[in-house]
Amino acid sequence: xxxxxxxxxxxxxxxxxxxxxxxxxxxxxxxxxxxxxxxxxxxxxxxxxxxxxxxxxxxxxxxxxxxxxxxxxxxxxxxxxxxxxxxx
Length: 88
Prior knowledge:
The protein is 90% helix and 0% strand. The protein is built from two helices and no strands. The relative contact order is 0.14.
């Protein structure tokens, strides 16, 4: 991400977590509907457990990406401010 422009970093930094969050909502909604159709209680519990794990993984990935991009943006802004300070 070193050579990307700031605007591109900002767009990616905000759009990827938003897309993952929307994906997570869609997955959660569809998995709840599917779980409601399962008649066997044990199969339903197993399905809900797996769905919960998938949801938590997607959320964790979203958080990691957000933190990574935020730290990258902070570093870029600090570097730009240092260059401006040195030029002054």
